[in-house]
Structure prediction request, 433 residues.
Amino acid sequence: MAGPTAGKLERQQIDTIVGTLDKKMTRSLKQYMDVCVRCAICKDACHQYVATGDMKYLPARRAELVREIYRKYFTKAGEFLPALFEAREPDENLLDELYDATYACTGCRRCMYYCPFSIDTQWVISAAKAILIACGRGNEMLGQLADAALFKGDNAEMFRDSLLDGWRDIETEVRELTGNPSAEIPVDREGADILYVALAGSHSILPAAVIFNEAGASWTLSFFESANYGFFFGDTEKARLIAKRYMDEALRLGVKEVVITECGHAYRVAEMFYEAWSKEKMPFKVRHILEVIDEYIKDGLITVDRGAITERVTYHDPCQIGRNGGIYDQPRDIVAAIARDFVDMTPNREKQWCCGGGGGIVAIEEFNEMRLASGGKKVEQIRATGATVLACPCENCRLQITELNQMHDLGLRVVPVMELVVDAMPLKGRPER
Ligand code: SF4
Ligand code: SF4
Prediction:
């Protein structure tokens, strides 16, 4: 039978938790700790709470776990009258609850948009992840993937030849498709305007290479991938080191801008977090590939056949690109330029429902059932459009929506936006439509 000390943490562990929270205690976090009025408006904004009705997924409840620690160690009232002020000494149970609340959160920040005080639960979650990692309770799979990325970056030379071989094959395809024997995938090109940071796999490189070559862009492909499991894991230092590889490469090559592929979290890491993490101002700008493609179409640098895509197309705003990245118009302008029948989802833009696949959750098996259930709102939205093509510029969202598509028999083709753009380009190597 469990004794009175069962579940208690050692003093040293408690000190670690309090010290970690103290390091994370910015003015904003303190405000999020102090101002929640428990109106529960956020409950209807969270796709996970809506799908499950489980209190542990209610945004305010997730943050409340951190608040309980905060009140106990950062407020006089909580220190002296813990029961009255709902302050709590962390124990095994609290850490278990915190793990579920934290690693399940997709970081979509839809709750923040609806909260009357704009409480950023995802920000609180990032403090919670730091606490879990400091206690050795970070998610194992995300931690392993982050370490694997660091290993791959540290041993780039080991992978160099096989990467180059793969890229030469893709280059051959680009030449065939464009009918241009000089089309290329440049690597390590000093003085190029653009460093393009892709994901592993031809789907992230081939369409971009076609577009850059057709636009006559001065570009070079990064040796490093944009995916950043250090960010999902919640370890800021690992996330910084993973991004530092391509940032250092951009500095070495002297590019004017870093362009991130169709990947939500990678765009946010590069554009919104890296300079703060590294305490260094980069001498180049960072853009998402869709911002660049939109510019190429509008400036006439690439030609697309207007209305070339004849199926009904809808667009999914990935949370890290739309609500959290502020990119709403460019993808819509691109899709509207090439699709004869574009139908937006309702609601959209900042009110778009999270598909349920962000924040690294697709890599965490224990959340699979909840993750797929949490896509219910997205399924309703997609079905209401009657679309047969879903354009989506984020790999994690595409993985999730592809699974939802199979589960719910939506009859969708789930594609990256740049793939649709290439489909709409009149390319010499492809027979005329
Ligand atoms: S909507 Fe904001 S204030 Fe209301 S319970 Fe949720 S987090 Fe707290
Ligand atoms: S950020 Fe998204 S998943 Fe996380 S609590 Fe808020 S609405 Fe739910």
